[in-house]
Amino acid sequence: MQKLNFQEVTWDLVWKNDQEKSSYSLNEWRDERADDKVGYFIQSGLMFRPGERVLDAGCGDGSILFALKKHFDISLVGADFSEEALINAAKNSIRKGLTLESHKADTRDLPFENNSIDKIFSLGVVEHLSNPEKAVAELARCLSPDGVLILMTPNKFSFGRIDRLIKSFLGIWKFGHQDEFSTEELAAMILQSGLIIQKTEVVKRKRFKNDSTAFKLIYIFDSLLGAFNSRWGFYSYVYATKNEQGKGI
User: Is-contact 12 25, C-beta < 8 A?
Assistant: First the structure.
């Protein structure tokens, strides 16, 4: 198993704050944003066939998988290196009455056979790793021949990056190591892994009722600049497959 560094271990602290109702791990907050992500997948044309094994690599509390299950008859698979995140995922599976196959694992060293997962998404994960290329290669290894990988990170061209830099300088950034990536940089990593790019997209973050002041400012500035430059927005998304016949989008 890949040895975890100090920054990665801090994720246990982030998820442990669930008892303190932190904005990051609050169930209402997570469910709202999970529904938004799934809505984006559906609008993008991503479809899930009955019985498909769907992996969230860096699943956290499993909220996105559980939101997908409301629309598709799929098998839920989650992997996360945070024990506290998986505890939260187990609580949520009981709360929602759903079955989750969960694994304590690093995205760079997953416990799955080659070509064994039908759909994989990893959202807001690889930017926290010191060698994201290794994680992308591992995701590609696990993906089935006609499967689809959806990779997302914070976008380099966003005021979210400026917010992160300021908080890091002030010593109040709590999410450990983070690098933002453009869609071009993510696509280059995916091509290096041997996958075929289906599409890349910059997606603006929506506003939510319980947004912090920082997120409200990020939304305003990103919207203003995004009106003039299509590279500007909060998220970088890339969809990829192993062959030209990849299904689902």
Answer: no
